[in-house]
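W.,

You were right to be curious about this one. When I first looked at the sequence I had no strong expectations either way, so I just let the prediction run and decided to look at it fresh. Below is the sequence, 92 residues in total, followed by the output.
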Amino acid sequence: MTLADLRSTAAEHLDGLLLALWLDAKGDWNRAHEIAQEVAGPDGAWVHAYLHRKESDLGNAAYWYARAGRAVEKGDLSAEWERIAIELLTRS
């Protein structure tokens, strides 16, 4: 699956963190956050961090970036969304 495929696919074809990112892109931050919270490990923490940064909860975001083993992001949110999606897609 490509980034373009992810953006254009239907939710029923996705699960886990890719579904969380898809939901976030469609404006459903709450459901995306629920899913990210359920995924253990660095990838779940990274998506969780991104979502908290998006809601401007920077302290919470910093905690989750640390759990993900990543530096706190400060750049464009859409660029970070793409980086996360591309990395996850290369592993699926």
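Here's what jumped out at me. The chain has a mean pLDDT of 94. And, maybe more interesting for your project: The longest helix spans residues 77-91.

Coffee later to discuss?

I.
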